[in-house]
Amino acid sequence: MQAYVVSYSKYIIAIALAVYTLTAYFALPVRRGKNPFFLLLVQRLCWIVFMVNATLTLWKLGGEDSRILLSGALCVVVFLAFMLLYQALYEKAHVMLFNNICMMLSIGLVIISRINFAKAQKQFLIALAGLVFILVFPILRKKLDYLKNIWLLYALAGLGMIGVVLLSGRSVNGANILFTLRGFTFQPSELVKILFLLFLAGAFSGGVSGFKVFVTFIAAMAHVGILVLSSDLGTAMIFYVVYFMMLYIATGRFRFLTWGFVMGAIGAVACYFLFAHLRLRVEMWLDPWTYINDGGYQITQALFAISFGGWFGAGLFQGIPSNIPFVESDFIFAAIAEEMGLVTAICLVLLCLNIFIDILVLSEQYSNPFFRMFTFGTGVMYIFQTFVTVAGETKFIPLTGVTLPLVSYGGSSVLSTLILFGIVGSIFILHGEREEVFRRQMDLEAAQAARMEELRRREALQKKQEKDRERGILGRRKPRQKTGPGGFTMDDPRFQPGASIFGDDGQNHF
Predict the structure, then answer these.
(1) E strands along 187-250, which residues?
(2) Cα(261)–Cα(468) distance, integer angstroms
(3) pTM as predicted
(4) What's the pLDDT band for 509 if we cut at 50, 70, 90?
(5) Tens digits of residue pLDDT in 62-118
């Protein structure tokens, strides 16, 4: 039985993920306000197959611990209930986006359960809180317009939060990123991402002036500077890129992107000489094999894990992801590639890209500047963080220490990402409802205009008929009689057959 599970479970996982990914891309052209039933059904069936197979595999190969079965069943019930309830509560909901989010969460929970079951349970509770927020927040969707009015307050609150962490935060791997309050540890920079997007979207929604560009630039660089001083360089880079991308979208001026690239390059060189740990990361990136037993150990083990998995992976519990330090948070992609295979890893990346494209499509169709900017910023932040994580684990860029959104272990990261997507989903629902009201109003006005036109046509016809009656055109007319020579009419008795042309007096009247 165990040999059967090891041999076939990884293929079922890969096939289920591959089919799910295909349906996600098939659904892209029809997502604007539509949730195709067949594609939804296929996606959910693939997700159920993935979860049931993975849960049974973890249970069988993990010592047949009943807690694994219970946790997997609870995950299936909760996520499926969320999908169905969200669709039932909100008619205009963008269901397929949240199907993808549930799939990403499920992949993360499976691989974290394999590495550390206790951490997977914590991750599930955080994900549950985020899903509850997504379900409840649309109730307040009609108040979303008010969020843009206090955009400067968001900047001040965000700077205050990361400033406190800089001064009194707890250091992890040389970076002051954690803050502990009454035994509860969280990463404020993850929550500041929400405030940062609200700040930029609110500032740019009312038009972009020179003053706003100056204020937003100073505030954004203050965020980046504090994060750099905290040695949280990965998050600082995400904030920097998001700012210039949103500034470009708000103004349409390419020179802002050019200036952003130049300033970023200068800043990267400066940070290289200012921070010793950054120089070490660059050296490990350029040649990790020379330092394989020291600073290069983490990245080399990740590369070994990715290459060891092959196309379909070694199978759950058949790899050694624990050899990679901080694997469940910083190197989760390498663990997925090792035990679930490159097919699953590629599908994971494609799903991340699919979510990004979907969000871009949503932002493009919004006429409300605040909604458009916030949705676009969420998409950019999500995909760039994904790129930074995957690229760092595959040695494409130096390591940054950020998590893979929705997949890596990290309560603050998962919760903040779900909150962002919850706001995006609420915006979509509100936009759909307003669009429906507008469409009904347009149909009503069109119907009223058609009735008015019909009344005008009838009135014009009635006036014409009245004029015709006055002229006697519609009355019965006496026919005009034809006359012959001498002025006689054609019905004169003398013109009748057999009549004489001579009168009673015998004279020829012709």
Answers:
(1) none
(2) 79
(3) 0.85
(4) very low
(5) 878 889 999 999 999 999 999 999 999 998 888 889 999 999 999 999 999 999 999
Give the orientation angle of helix 332-364 with respect to helix 369-393, to 10 degrees. Answer: 160
Give the E-state strand segments of 117-259 in sequence order. 170-172, 175-181, 184-186
Give kind and range of the element (H or E) at residue 211: helix 210-229
Residues in the chain: 510
Cβ atoms of 224 and 159 within 8 Å: the answer is no
Question: End-to-end distance of the chain based on CA atoms, in angstroms?
Answer: 131
Lowest mean pLDDT across 116-130, 137-151, 463-477, 491-505 = 491-505
User: How far is the CA of 319 from the CAs of 60, 115, 299, 326, in angstroms?
Assistant: 16, 10, 16, 16
Other Cβ atoms less than 10 A from the Cβ of 78: the count is 15
Q: Which of 5, 12, 10 is nearest to 309 (CA)?
A: 10
Q: Which of 296-310, 415-429, 462-476 has the lowest mean pLDDT?
A: 462-476
Q: Do 109 and 120 touch, CB atoms closer than 8 A?
A: yes
If we measure between CA atoms, which residue out of 88, 100, 86 comes closest to residue 47? 100
Q: Is residue 287 part of a domain?
A: yes
Give yes or no for residue 180 having a pLDDT over 70. Answer: no
Distance CA 42, CA 23 (A): 7
CA dihedral 221, 222, 223, 228 (to 10 degrees): 90
Long-range contacts: 436-442, Cβ < 8 Å, 24+?
Answer: 436/92
The span from the CA of 336 to the CA of 269, in Å, is: 33
- What are 112's two structure tokens? 């974290």
Q: For residue 87, how many other CB atoms are within 10 A of its CB?
A: 17
**pLDDT score at 510:** 43
Alpha-carbon distances of 353 from 24, 25, 103, 239, 268, rounded to whole Å: 11, 10, 14, 19, 26
Residue with tokens 């502990």: 180
- Whether 448 is in a domain gets the answer no
Question: Which of 62, 42, 44 has its CA nearest to residue 110?
Answer: 62
Write the DSSP assignment of 38-65 as a string of letters: HHHHHHHHHHHHHHHHHHHHHHHHTT--
Domain carrying residue 236: 2-440
Q: Could you tell me if residue 462 is inside a domain?
A: no
Q: How far apart are CA 291 and CA 297, in angstroms?
A: 7
Between CA 410 and CA 379 the distance in angstroms is 20
Task: List 172's β-bridge partners, or say none.
Answer: 175
- With tokens 């009748």, the residue in question is 496
Return the closest-CA partner of residue 401 out of 236, 164, 261, 242.
Answer: 236
Statement: residue 403 has pLDDT above 50: yes
| CA nearest neighbour of 302 among 282, 285, 290, 317 | 285
With respect to residue 192, please indicate whether it lies within any of the assigned structural domains. yes
Number of domains within the chain: 1
